[in-house]
């Protein structure tokens, strides 16, 4: 099995630096091992938390700048996303299957985040942009 | 060795909610294993990231609320702290020495943050009174 997620224009939120960060998150998630490898999985999870933190911080800053009205709600969703990632990241990863399940979760987690909540500020951003 | 730091009054910054979060961060760092235990180390690290983020967010909200003048600088420090933690947390933890070194780092990481940076917020609030 080789789970991978490729970024494409459907994922674009229309703000270059945020798109770039989403691509970095995809790359990190693609690097989650599909076999037991505690040291590598830890390294990958640490990177995932670090970039997620940076990404959410920048996203919140951008939303503040554009006057996005649902900023608080979106920030709360970010905290929930971190909570879910934490829960799943602390499960035992002592079988290949557990690693694969973790990777599938992470892929769904990022896709879901972009397609449901990020697309909402993307739409808002578009209406504010002079065309 | 049994490294641990328990929160006490000297760490207080006078804001109960933030003090409680600092205590929780100490508890997590105290539970970092001093023997090789990848699974347990991973759990501690993940929790450290989660609660550090929640804490930094709450602290930033509080600084905004009290009109703390060095907010931007403090936010940058929080981001740098997350970076430092990630760098160290990615090193191999395949010996007891490595685990102990990581635990020492995590404990100092919290203490430095509170004693040097957060105490300044407390001073600002005291001056406002
Ligand atoms: Fe996003
Ligand atoms: Fe703090
Ligand atoms: Fe702080």
How would you explain this protein's 3D organization?
Chain A is mostly helical and 131 residues long. Helix content of chain A is 73%, strand content 0%. Chain A is built from four helices and no strands. Chain A has helices at residues 16-30, 38-65, 71-89, 96-128. In chain A, helix 1 (16-30) packs antiparallel against helix 2 (38-65), helix 1 (16-30) packs antiparallel against helix 4 (96-128) and helix 3 (71-89) packs antiparallel against helix 4 (96-128). The longest helix of chain B has 33 residues, at 96-128. The N and C termini of chain B lie far apart (44 Å). The chains are: A mainly alpha (131), B mainly alpha (129). At the A-B interface, helix 2 and helix 3 of A face helix 2 and helix 3 of B. Residues 59, 74, 78, 113, 117-118 of chain B line the site of one fe (ii) ion.
What's this model, at a glance?
The complex is a heterodimer of chains A (131) and B (129). Chain A is mainly alpha-helical and 131 residues long.
């Amino acid at each position: 099995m080789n789970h991978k997620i490729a970024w494409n224009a459907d994922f674009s939120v229309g703000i270059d630096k945020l798109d770039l960060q989403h691509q970095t998150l995809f790359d990190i998630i693609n690097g989650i091992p599909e076999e037991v490898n505690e040291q590598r999985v830890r390294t990958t999870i640490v990177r995932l938390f670090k970039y997620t933190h940076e990404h959410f911080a920048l996203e919140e800053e951008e939303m503040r700048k554009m006057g996005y009205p649902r900023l608080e709600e979106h920030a709360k969703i970010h905290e929930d996303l971190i909570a879910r990632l934490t829960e799943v990241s602390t499960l035992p990863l002592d079988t290949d299957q557990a690693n694969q399940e973790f990777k599938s979760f992470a892929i769904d987690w990022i896709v879901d985040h972009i397609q449901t909540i990020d697309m909402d500020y993307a739409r808002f951003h578009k209406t504010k942009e002079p065309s | 060795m049994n490294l641990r730091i328990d929160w006490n009054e000297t760490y207080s910054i006078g804001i109960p909610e933030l003090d409680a979060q600092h205590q929780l961060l100490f508890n997590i760092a105290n539970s970092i294993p001093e023997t090789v235990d990848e699974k347990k180390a991973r759990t501690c690290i993940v929790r450290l990231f989660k609660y550090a983020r929640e804490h930094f967010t709450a602290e930033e909200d509080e600084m905004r609320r009290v009109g703390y003048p060095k907010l931007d600088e403090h936010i940058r420090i929080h981001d740098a702290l997350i970076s430092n933690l990630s760098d160290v947390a990615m090193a191999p933890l395949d010996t007891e020495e490595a685990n102990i070194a990581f635990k020492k780092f995590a404990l100092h990481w919290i203490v430095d943050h509170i004693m040097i940076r957060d105490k300044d917020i407390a001073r600002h609030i005291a001056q406002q009174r």
